[in-house]
Amino acid sequence: MTKLIEANFVEELKDSYIDYSLSVLLSRALPDVRDGLKPVQRRIMYSMYKLGLFSNSNYKKCASIVGEVLGKYHPHGDNPVYEALVRMAQDFVLNYPLIDGQGNFGSIDGDPPAAYRYTEAKLTKIGELMLEDIELNTVDFRSNFDDTTTEPIVLPSAFPNLLVNGSTGIAVGMVTNIPPHNLNEVIDACIAILENPNIPIKQILDIIKGPDFPTGGIVYTSKIIKSVYVTGKGTIKVEGKYRIENIQKKDYLVIYEIPYSVNKSKLIKEIAEAIKDKKLNDVVDVIDQSKNTDIRILLELKTPYNEEQIVNYLKNFTSYRTSFYCAFIAVDGHIPKQYSILELLKKYVEHRKEVVIRRTKTILEKLSNKAFLTKGLIKAIKNIDKLVKIVRNSEDYKKAVLNLVSELHVNHKQAEYILNLQLHRLTKLEVDKLLQDYNQTMQKIKELSEILDNQSKLIQVVKEELNEIKQKYGKQRKTVIAEKDTFKEIKIEKSQQEEELILVGFSNGYLYSYKANTKKDKIFANVSNYNYVTSIYRSSSKNKVIVFLSNGKYSLLDLNKLIDTSIFLPKVFKSEENTKAIKLISAKKLSKASYVLIITQKGMVKKVSVKEILEISRTSSYIKLEEGDEVIEIIPLSEDLTITTLTEMGYAFRTNTSQIPVLSKPAKGVKLASLKQNDNICITFSSPDLYQSQLLILTTNNNKIVSNSDIPQINRGKNLTENMRLISKNEKLRFTRSIGVFSQDKSKLNLVIKDNDFLLIRSLEAQPDYTFINYLGETDIEL
Q1: Which pLDDT belongs to residue 424?
Q2: At 492, is the pLDDT very low, low, confident or very high (cuts 50, 70, 90)?
Q3: 327-341, 388-402, 442-456: range with lowest mean pLDDT
Q4: Strands 510-515 and 500-506
Q5: In the predicted model, is pLDDT for residue 591 greater than 60?
Q6: Residue 137 Cα distances to 161, 363, 446, 451, angstroms
Q7: Contact 265, 325 (CB under 8 A)
Q8: Tag placement on the chain: N or C end, fewer CB within 10 Å?
Q9: Is 80 exposed, middle or buried (CB count within 10 Å of its CB: 0-12, 13-18, 19+)?
Q10: Contact 539, 557 (CB under 8 A)
Q11: How far apart are CA 353 and CA 218, in angstroms?
């Protein structure tokens, strides 16, 4: 039986999205602040641990590892799992790869790795340290997705992996991007915190100089780095390293380190294109002599050459210098948070102390149990004759246990342990070993108890273990931290030739751009009974124009990108196929008006303040349309005037714009007039005072000329009556919106006029049966 539950849609959507966001944050995208691993990375490493893929074992196919992860721990796709595995094996991504890969695991050139059926992997030695002591109850476990096994919530992480190897991830509403650091510096900072929990961040920044990328490079500058580390967010500049070498009597600029995460082949391509375009005039050729992770890019130099000029170009216009965005965001339990570097270090130190405490308790428990059993065994051996007699006289095993408990005064477990004793343990030598082992066990118990009882002893253990890792795996810093930035900005403006353009919008949704000297036959070649002109504008290619679309949206168009070409508006603005350009106008010209008058096909109308219209930064709405409606006219108004409107059924009326209210952009508008059923407005215009205007009405039977002054004027919103109808009931307008306003002045017979604008088409007398087009032109357009 189906049960319906009523719920508030907004609240339900909000709760569902929050749940989804947290799922992405905690289960996929962000690393844990303690071990620096995302869930998929942790599951990969634990799976390899369970498979016994240690550094001294044989390699195993990555397909098997991926299958193990998917089948037991990670109910997602195989590609993300393999990508995470590959990343943990790439030495140009991590300072200390956690996985040892055999086969093609990608390259710094961006080459993809081979499929997981071809590659093999096992843990590295330092990767094993991430899982060290995990069997000693050092971390909590939880059930896997189908409750068939368990997985660790976090790894013991014997070294501060989050800062040493860094992490990157994109979640919902936040991103983490923690750069790699030098192991020696990070461990020294951890030890400093252990020695002084209240250490100021300033002293930490004296220890950790900045990021240490596996690809080296130079980071600028120390002041910016300190700001990033204090706030946990910011951008640092990274660039490569070069030197000048003379090879076979030729000078070369050799790039031997590149910025972190930069694709080497992309950098070489950028340099090659600059040489080809003669932007690097002092460089003859670029040669890639790199091998594996050893970068060696040679730039062959002319004689003489300007080293500073070459390097400045590389810094300004290639990937030789890049920006690295830092965001120290990690998950603490179930809470994603942005940390300073001091907070990250403290979280790790607390984790390691907790791991050592739990490990110590587990070992102490095992040793205490061992000492307890050994003590009972020693007691029994001292009474060996009595022991033998008790065992010999006991009926069975259970009776023997009970007799030992009562006669020798030992514990039940001790009695069982004694009975399981092998006879060779009764020799004098074995007894001596037993006593020695007991004393050593008790000494170890005493030492471990001191760790739990004495905080300074605990800190000493953590410090010793970190120092041991530092001595064994520490490396010199690769990345140089430069105090002074030698960057010099170069601005190269592209030569941009100014063109005078004529923009023509058509009813089929295309907007064409023609150079001003284009012949009119080409401009109007697309005009037909089914494809008419909806807008036209003339402007320089250096300008941006506002385009008003029929779907109620408007935006800015950069004409520099629209020279002698065309665009399909529905595709550009991702709208309906019937979207067309209704009005094109520059912001400068529009600012001379006070309002914008907007008329729709269904008869809705409103005025919007030009100031509000000019508040545009991206595609936005200037009117809210009902379903099936569209905008047919945009008229800038400097003052109130009378507009003439014609409908598809032949009704005509005039209205003064003073009766039309000023509304905001999101408003629908008000009714211009109450139209007849199934009737639509096909054209609205303001008659020019310069001419005695008349209308040429093209009907299904004939053409009719009507004086504009004879059209009745009505108040806004009134019903249309039959005396407003210009054509008979059995007629219809032949071409919707194919109507022009023209003058009877014989010298102006060549002009089609609309909204005070006119365009020379052709002589009406030469071809009286020609098809009219409505053309929104500019008075300065001459074709």
Answers
A1: 61
A2: low
A3: 388-402
A4: antiparallel
A5: yes
A6: 20, 10, 21, 17
A7: no
A8: N
A9: middle
A10: no
A11: 35
Helices marked H in 109-254:
125-129, 161-165, 183-195, 201-207, 222-231
User: pLDDT of 137-147, one tens digit each?
Assistant: 999 999 998 99
83 confidence band (pLDDT: 50, 70, 90): very high
State both tokens at 40: 């998929």
Q: Assign residue 766 a region: left if phi > 0, alpha if psi is -120 to 50, beta otherwise? A: alpha
* CA–CA separation, 378 and 391 (whole Å): 16
Put the strands of the sheet holding 757-760 in their side by side order.
703-707, 693-698, 740-743, 751-754, 757-760
More confident residue, 537 or 296: 296
DSSP string over 501-550: EEEEEETTSEEEEEETTS-HHHHTTT-BTTB-EEEEEEEETT-EEEEEET
Q: Cite the active site residues.
A: 118
Amino acid code (one letter) for 63? A
- Cα–Cα distances in angstroms (integers) from residue 71 to residues 44, 84, 85, in the given order: 12, 16, 16
Q: Which of 374, 369, 372 is nearest to 425 (CA)?
A: 374
pLDDT at 660 over 80: yes
More confident site: 732 or 420: 420
Q: pLDDT per residue over 732-768, tens digit each?
A: 665 433 333 333 333 333 334 333 333 333 333 323 3
User: What is the maximum span of the chain, computed from C-alpha positions, in angstroms?
Assistant: 144
Q: Strands of 297-301's sheet, edge to edge?
A: 241-247, 250-257, 297-301, 283-288
How would you classify residue 110: left for phi > 0, otherwise alpha for psi between -120 and 50, otherwise beta?
A: left
Length of the chain: 783
* DSSP string across 698-731: EBSS-EEEEEGGGSPB--TTPBP-GGGB-S-TT-
- What is the predicted pLDDT for the residue at 349? 96
CA dihedral 630, 635, 639, 640 (to 10 degrees): -50
CB-count exposure of residue 88 (10 Å: 0-12, 13-18, 19+): buried
- Residue 736 phi, psi (nearest 5): -60, 125
User: Is 121 in contact with 64 (CB distance < 8 Å)?
Assistant: no
For strands 99-102 and 120-123, give the pairing. Answer: antiparallel
Could you read off the pLDDT of 210-231 as tens digits, one per residue? 999 999 999 987 678 888 999 9
DSSP 8-state symbol, 674 = B
Which are the contacts of 237, defined by CB distance < 8 A and separation ≥ 6? 219, 220, 221, 224, 321, 322, 323, 324, 485, 487
Q: What is the spatial distance between Cα 767 and Cα 747, in angstroms, rounded to a whole number? A: 16
pLDDT band, very low/low/confident/very high, at 557 (cuts 50, 70, 90):
confident
CA distance 131 to 48: 10
Grade residue 119 by pLDDT with cuts at 50, 70 and 90.
very high
